[in-house]
Amino acid sequence: MAIWVIAEQQDGILKKVSLEILSKGQKLAEELGTELEAVLLGEDVSELADLLAAYGASKVYLADDEELAPYSSEAYSQVIAGLIEENEPEAVFFGHTALGKDLAPRVAQKVETGMVSDITEAEVEDDQLVFTRPIYAGKAFTKSKVLSTPIMATFRPNVQTMSDADDGASANVEEVDVDLENIRAKVVDVQKQSGGRVLLTEADIIVSGGRGMKGPENYPVIEELADALGAAVGASRAAVDAGWRPHSDQVGQTGKTVSPTLYVACGISGAIQHLAGMSSSKYIVAINKDEEANIFNVADYGIVNDLFKVVPAMTEAVKKYKDE
Amino acid sequence: MNILVCLKQTFDTEAKVELKEGRINSQGIKNIINPYDEFAVEEALKLKEANGGEVTIISVGSDQTQEALRQALAMGADKAILVESPNGDEYATAKALATAVQGIEFDLILGGHVAIDDNSGQVAIRLAEELDLPQVNVVTKLEINDGKAVCTREIEGGVQIVETPLPTVITCQKGLNEPRYPSLKGIMQAKKKELKRVGLEELELAVDSKVEILEVFLPPQKAAGKIVEGEAEEAAGELVRLLKEEAKVI
């Protein structure tokens, strides 16, 4: 009986969400009196086992094979389902990432179990795992439990706190034989977005621009603030629909859901659908000329003024602090 | 090309969410086709227009789901199947869909990549697994050539190009197409198109949900925030100071 974290790596780097889930997993495993273990798939990823151990995994199932080099839902689900059937973990956790969203439901159906998606909290109540998650674009929350085993859940990234790494820890590594059947869907190319900024879904700080930006040519104003803060740049639906920014920048109900520590909304009115994408941000700052804008109802800090005057001044102030 | 489209009816995005006796109150709420499923319906219609064949809409729902199905039929789909099932979880819903499509010949199953009400994004993938089909999710561009689908799939920071033979399950993302509005003619014709209702007993399916909802609650009201007063530059400087020293986020 163990809690498993399906660790996610990309190009040999472990995704932060995997470490977040392990950190949470440590506490849950302790409360349930069970082990915390990790499962790692890929090619040439064996050295990552130490990092998984540093975040609490006492055992790592390592499926290291060239057939697992590109991610494939069919290949990965076969390996993971096989491991689940053999080892019967109590719970299996994934990050609610592009990969997790694609893979976890397939594994869940393969092993005939229930799963709660995009959870923001996992707790032990009466010796059972209870998951909290937002529904209806964050207008409501549910607490649920999975009645079957293994208990499965996908965790929203950037919500759980990472524990301190225990660099001295080591894990028992079990190598897994990879024997795949009938893989049909295959990745033939990967095209990365250019631009060196951190990804929206993983960013700690996001600066977002909406209708108030008045045009695509004005985005450098918020990009400069983002650069000073080491932040990602987002957009509201209005800006995307107007063709000013790509859909991949869109934060909101029909765009991305983000949970940064700080979300700076510039010229964004704060429609319900936008809030759906960023309301789990730890701190929200709103800069808008319109004092009636809905965004001020959810902002922790706000400035009612022209963003074209405020944002450059903020950039200067941030740069000054960074220089000190 | 015969295409199945999985469709879910959801609350309108503007809907005010209230609780009644600990459950979400659905009275007086406007229902719509899940926006992402609209992309699926539109894509199916485009493929039918290019290749011939039939588009069948399938949904797990209740009486009022018929409205959403008629809308899809009005857009141009040929027939619809409504599986009447009480609120099951994603596992049960996938089983219901998989059972309902037994005996139907299809080349492709399309659906939205996520429903805007529960935000799970599980059912279409579970269905692919049930039917032992490959899957490609969150697709923004789709080409079908010689029994093969070439898909552009959105991932963090970019896209993947994924190829898979048909039949397959593909879920749709915004940007794939622009869903058409039903024409008046389409709306009239929809009334005569086949909408089959089938219950779980008819499907000989007895399946329990594997997730139990213990509680539904509304988020706590947020405390009022702080408006930083003053001239733009002054306020900006003060805000940055607050973020650094009070919130400690920069």
In the sheet with the most strands of chain A, the strands line up as 7-11-6-1-4-5-12
Q: Termini of chain B, distance in Å?
A: 55 Å
Oligomer: heterodimer
Strand count, sense and closure of the main sheet of chain A?
Answer: 7 strands, parallel
Structure notes:
The complex is a heterodimer of chains A (324) and B (250). Chain A is α/β, with parallel strands linked by helices and 324 residues long. Chain A folds into two domains: 2-175, HUPs (Rossmann fold), CATH 3.40.50; 200-323, Rossmann fold (3-Layer(aba) Sandwich). Chain A has eight helices and 18 strands. In chain A, strands 7-11-6-1-4-5-12 form a seven-stranded parallel beta sheet, with helices on both faces. The longest helix of chain A has 17 residues, at 16-32. Chain A is elongated and about 60 Å long. Chain A starts with a strand and ends with a helix. Chain B folds into two domains: 3-199, 3-Layer(aba) Sandwich (Rossmann fold); 220-250, no CATH class. In chain B, the strands form three sheets. Chain B has a nine-stranded mixed beta sheet, sandwiched between helices. In chain B, strands 2-5 form a two-stranded antiparallel sheet. In chain B, strands 3-4 form a two-stranded antiparallel sheet. The longest helix of chain B is centred in the N-terminal third of the chain and has 17 residues, at 35-51. In chain B, strand 6 (55-61), helix 2 (65-75) and strand 7 form a beta-alpha-beta unit. Chain B has 250 residues and is of the alpha/beta class. The radius of gyration of chain B is 22 Å and the shape is globular. Chain B is 27% helix and 32% strand. Chain B has six helices and 15 strands. Classes of the chains: A alpha/beta (324), B alpha/beta (250). The interface between A and B is large, with 88 and 79 residues. Strand 10 (140-146) of chain A pairs antiparallel with strand 14 (211-217) of chain B.
